[in-house]
Write a sequence for this structure.
């Protein structure tokens, strides 16, 4: 059975207007056939939060939504809660305190059932705290700022659905570059993944078993690859800024794909509009005609004159494109900056 | 004549306590021999600002401080103002609006005199706006946020003291990752340099003519190298987040050096304490003794027994270091995180 997709949402996903991310989650869970388990353990609110997602998911067409809310490790051993996860086609973890979520759920039957759900093909998603917990290593808490400083943040263990990675959320909005850089400087085998609000990193396996991340939503996903870092993170003192040189940065807006296994951007497929394609095909014809004209001129000037006269009689148009044309259709027509 | 040092200060340099950066500026200008020209054109205040720096530089030992304040391009042609720059051993540009500073000064005799001062060996420094103007390309203004978005910022031309670069300031404090990334994504031949508050990038030429950046102060200097970027900056629409994949990031705290010409970290020199050095030298002796012991054992077990017996008689101590020792003194003694 193939692994299900993961949806790592940076918090504050749009719930009122376009609802791109919530729609995508319900669709991945099976649309009208979906049975969604909402895990609101990270939140201090509980019923209110699961009530909101219940309504949201039903509006997008889910037929069954159930709240699975262990509030202690003991409750996370409850067979009924485990069965609810086992029956789900999608598991959604809400925002809140990721350390509360991980310390109640990780390493319990409910936690294991979430991992098993992913492995049997269900979609597992989460927003904010529910995003953080999906990686092997979890950013537990920490301060804002773009300069990484020793001790500015704390790491704990996550569910491990994304291996060899650490996930951060509200990334742009809460200025969390520094803390993610600090973590990867101290653990350079990890990939740092920062997800903006109303943005999701969807992680799926491709045919070769690679985990490939695709971005949807309003913001971007930032990937920090410290494989070749030079750092003093092992000796920087107290709260001093730390050296982190040679980290490779990937800033990925909607539509980008990134191979987490090879740590490289998946080249975007060239998108050619129908209009461009028609123009390109016509240009191809013109170029072939021009090539024949040139060959004729090489044979003799008289042969070219006869060719051109024949063509003008039969088509009634210019024999060849002028230099000011754009025969290959390469000049993109788009709205760009005017500066 | 060798070029003088540049001091690129990220704003809000400490003026009351340690005053590391201001001290360094006066020292570079010649200490008691220094004649400093303060250019407060960026500021809307003027006399108040130059008065503050007058007092600060005199406190650090400068004997002559003069304000050079053109308020129009015409005033920036004034021969007296030019002469004041020409007589200076240090030129300091204050904070304010870098676009005001550059539009009044760049390409005028006063601007040319600042460039000439650098070329004849004077120190040229500036804070905030006075930092931004030093690069060939100047970040004129723009919004905060760590995700780069199309049209979030605007570029203008600077003095060009640092070539092929764009400088940003208040970098950590005002969350300016996004705008610097946007600029380098659109102009990947430039190096992006972000300087935190109370932090300075000191740029000097080494023996090979490379511009080498050294960091002092409380924060860090962030360098973004987009040489191998993949980006959609040429076609991203309106204010959409832009793709910027493969940017190499260098986060440089105090004491780090970075070669701007080769775009690589200058490896820090190993710092070995006297105590460590003594231990290392003794360990060397022990290791040589051990090597001879092993050679003796290879010859015959009896030869080794005789060697060891001789040594114990003569030194009265253990014949060789035990495995729990740290003979090479490689375990650093420092204060590190306790987690």
């Amino acid at each position: 059975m193939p692994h299900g997709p993961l949806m790592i949402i940076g918090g504050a996903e749009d719930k009122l207007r376009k609802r791109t991310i919530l729609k995508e989650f319900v669709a991945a869970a099976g649309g009208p056939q979906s049975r969604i388990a909402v895990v609101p353990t990270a939140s201090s609110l509980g019923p209110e939060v699961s009530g909101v997602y219940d309504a949201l998911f039903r509006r997008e067409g889910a037929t069954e939504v159930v709240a699975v809310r262990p509030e202690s490790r003991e409750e996370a051993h409850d067979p009924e809660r485990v069965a609810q996860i086992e029956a789900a086609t999608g598991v959604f973890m809400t925002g809140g305190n990721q350390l509360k979520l991980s310390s109640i759920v990780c390493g319990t039957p409910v936690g294991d059932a979430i991992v098993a759900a992913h492995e049997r093909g269900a979609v597992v998603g989460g927003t904010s705290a529910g995003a953080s917990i999906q990686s092997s290593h979890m950013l537990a808490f920490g301060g804002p700022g773009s300069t990484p400083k020793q001790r500015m943040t704390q790491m704990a263990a996550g569910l491990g659905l994304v291996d060899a990675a650490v996930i951060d959320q509200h990334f742009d909005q809460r200025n969390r570059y520094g803390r993610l850089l600090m973590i990867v400087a101290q653990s350079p085998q990890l990939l740092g993944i920062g997800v903006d609000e109303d943005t999701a990193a969807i992680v799926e396996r491709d045919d070769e078993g690679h985990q490939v991340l695709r971005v949807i939503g309003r913001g971007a996903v930032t990937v920090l690859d410290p494989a070749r870092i030079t750092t003093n993170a092992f000796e920087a003192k107290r709260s001093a800024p730390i050296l982190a040189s040679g980290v490779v940065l990937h800033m990925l807006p909607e539509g980008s794909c990134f191979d987490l296994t090879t740590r490289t951007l998946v080249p975007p497929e060239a998108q050619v509009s129908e209009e461009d394609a028609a123009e390109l095909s016509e240009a191809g014809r013109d170029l072939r005609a021009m090539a024949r004209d040139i060959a004729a001129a090489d044979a003799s000037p008289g042969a070219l004159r006869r060719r051109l006269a024949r063509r003008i009689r039969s088509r009634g148009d210019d024999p060849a494109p002028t230099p000011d044309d754009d025969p290959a259709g390469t000049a993109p027509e788009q709205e760009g900056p005017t500066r």
